[in-house]
Structures are given as structure tokens and as C-alpha cells.
Amino acid sequence: MKYFSRNYIDKYLLYILSAGIYFFAAIYTTTIAQKIELGAGIGGFNYKGDIAPTQKIRFIKPAGSLFFRFNPNQALSLRAEIAGGIIGADDKHSDDPFQLARNKSFTTRIFEGSAVAEYNFLNFQERRLAVNWSPYLFGGVGYSKFDPKVQTNPYKTSTFTLPYGVGIKYQVRRPWNIGIEYGARKTFTDFLDDLGGKPVATDKLVQGDPSLKDNYYYLRLSVTYTFYKIVCP
Fold first, then answer.
1. Do the Cβ atoms of 91 and 47 come closer than 8 Å?
2. Residue 27 carries which DSSP code?
3. Which pLDDT tens digit goes with each residue over 89-109?
4. Is 113 helix (H, G, I), strand (E, B) or coil?
5. Mapping DSSP to helix (H, G, I), strand (E, B) and coil, where does residue 39 land?
6. Is residue 114 left, alpha or beta, with left meaning phi > 0 and alpha meaning psi from -120 to 50?
7. Cα separation of 217 and 85, whole Å?
8. What pLDDT sits at residue 69?
9. Residue 1 class from Cβ within 10 Å (0-12 exposed, 13-18 middle, 19+ buried)?
10. Confidence check: pLDDT of 217 > 50
11. DSSP state letters, 162-192
12. Per-residue pLDDT tens for 147-159?
């Protein structure tokens, strides 16, 4: 009966339990690993506001970002991103006589953090022998800090934002993916261009349109790396 003693059975069950836990933990971490991407993007910010009522290619300024993406399923991706760059514009490039007379310009650095959800139109997943790509829509919330070189009047230099837009992602070769994305940042400030708020002077040339909020846009190319294995210490 030695081989069927309680201590022996308990020890045997412990081995089985340990092996089972290790097995399912390995499956779980591998599954989670395949859903994690780290990426970097480079592109440009573009501004729209009092000095540029419409977007103009000449006002695109350099920008870049780093992001983390988690893919809980084929249709949904969750992304956290930090980005930084420059926005600016100049009245002298306008056809509007008022803007030419105002002759205002600005440049400011912007740093933002955002969390968005992406909806993939196609089933984007790891595939070794098939073309793997998908267009997607995204939307979420963010927070931006800007740093104007000139500040006519005291005002808050940060704002919540609503980022949204479209993109395309493509798996070039496991584990590398590339993508292109274009998105807007709806802000809740009128001071990105140092022209905002209620009129404080009788000179119309130093005022902006208080009904027109400033927004900016981000066009970027990205590269991401998908983790297919987590090495446990």
C-alpha cells in the first residue's frame, strides 16, 4: 500500500496540478503576447483655425509618436499613444485681405496623450500564408499641452481633445506591420494660434473669431512589432 499512501497521492496530484497550471499559463501568455503590439509613427501635424480657416499643405509641420496597441479580437484594437510635434501658420499666405492686413503668424509645440479604440473592417489577425490587412476607423479621448512662443494674454495652454479618423494597417512579414493613418483632434480651446477668447481690444486686427475653435490634424506612417512570445524569467 506504500504506493497508494495519502502522501504519495497528494504529491502526485500536486505535480499534475502544477503541470496543468504551467500549461494553461503558457497558453494564456502566448495568446496575450500575440495580441500586443508596440509601434512608432512619423508624419506631420496640420492646423486649422483663425490664421488657417482651411487646411493647407504648406502649414504641415513635423510630428512623431510612440504607441501601444492591444488586440482583444479581430475586429477591435485598443491603443494608447503619446505624440509630439509642431503646428503653425502665417496670414501672409492667405488670399483674404483682412488676414493680409492682420499679418499674424504663430508656431507652437504640441504634446499629446490619447487612448482610442480602432474598429477593423476586415478580420485583422496573424496569418502566415495569407494577405493580412484592414482599413479601420478610430475614436477616443486625449489631452494636449501646447507651448506658444508668443502669448498676448494669459490663458490655459492645455486642452482635452477628441481624436478620430481613419487608417489602414498591413502585416508585411511576421512580426512586422506597417500602417498609414489620418486623424483629427477636436480641441476645446481657441488659443492654439494665440488668437482667442472674447474681444479685448477695439483693433479688429489683433482679434480672432471667438466662434471658431482651433483644431489640428495628424497624418502619419507607422511601424509596429507584434510580440509572439513572452520570455519568463
1. no
2. H
3. 999 999 988 888 888 899 999
4. strand
5. strand
6. beta
7. 11
8. 95
9. exposed
10. yes
11. EEEEEEEEEEEETTEEEEEEEEEEEES-S-T
12. 876 666 678 899 9
In angstroms, rounded to a whole number, what is the distance separating the alpha carbons of residues 199 and 153?
Answer: 11
- Identify the residue whose cell numbers are 482583444: 72
Q: Rounded CA gap, 168 and 208, in Å?
A: 37
Whether 48 and 193 have beta carbons less than 8 Å apart is answered as no
Q: Are the C-beta atoms of 162 and 141 separated by less than 8 Å?
A: yes
Cell of 17: 496540478
pTM: 0.81
Question: The cell 497558453 sits on which residue?
Answer: 27
Count Cβ atoms within 10 A of the Cβ of residue 87 and give its class: 0-12 exposed, 13-18 middle, 19 or more buried. buried
Cα–Cα distance measured from residue 111 to residue 36, given in angstroms and rounded to the nearest whole number: 24
Distance, CA of 212 to CA of 208 (rounded, Å): 8
The enclosing H or E element of 135 equals strand 133-148
Grid cell of 159 as nine digits: 486642452
Q: Kindly give the residue spans of alpha helices, DSSP state H, lying in 103-220.
A: none
User: Which pLDDT band, with edges at 50, 70 and 90, does 200 fall under?
Assistant: low
* Three-class secondary structure of residue 200 per DSSP: coil
- Region of 165 (left: φ > 0; alpha: ψ -120 to 50; beta: rest) is left
